[in-house]
C-alpha cells in the first residue's frame, strides 16, 4: 500500500490577481511563504518517506519548507509542472476577453489539453507506486495538474471543490485501487487567513 500526499503550492501574486500562471515561474508571495511555513509545521510530526515537487519555483519553495523541517531532500520532476497555457499565460479574464473576445476559450491559443496534463500526472504517479511500494510520498505541484490527475485516479469521489493553496489531499493505493483519505484539507491555515 502506497500513500501519496498531494499538495498545491502556496499563494503567489498572480493567484491573487487571478492571472493564468501556467508554466511561468512566478514565486510565492509573502502570504504564500507563511502558508508554506504553516504547512511544514503540520507535516513536522507526520511520517513521510519522500518529497517530490514540480521544478517551478512556487512548488519547489513550498516543498523546501517541508523538506527543511523534516530534514528531507526534495526531488523535482518536470512532469509535475502546471498546465502549459500558451498565449494566455500572464493574463486575467478581462485581458483575455479584450484581446480574443468572449469565446477566447474556444480558440487554439497553444494551451495544453486536459488529457495531456492528466497523462503527465498519471505517468508520475505510476512511477511513484512502482518505485516506492508501501511507502508514504509527498508531491507538491499545481492546481490543474493535481485536479486533473485526481479525476483519473478517484473518479468515484466528489472532488469538484477547487484546490486551495497549500491544501493536502491524501490518497492510498491498494490492490490496483485508489482511495481518497482526505481531500483539499487546509486545517493548518485555521485562523490564519
UniProtKB/TrEMBL annotation:
One Pfam family, short name: His_Phos_1
Sorted UniProt keywords: Hydrolase
EC number(s) reported in the record: 3.1.3.3
Keyword set includes Hydrolase: yes
InterPro entries, sorted: His_Pase_superF_clade-1 (IPR013078), His_PPase_superfam (IPR029033), Phosphoglycerate_Mutase (IPR051695)
Signal peptide coordinates: none
Any GO MF annotation of the entry: hydrolase activity
Domain of life: Bacteria
Matching PANTHER family: FRUCTOSE-2,6-BISPHOSPHATASE TIGAR
Protein name: Phosphoserine phosphatase 1
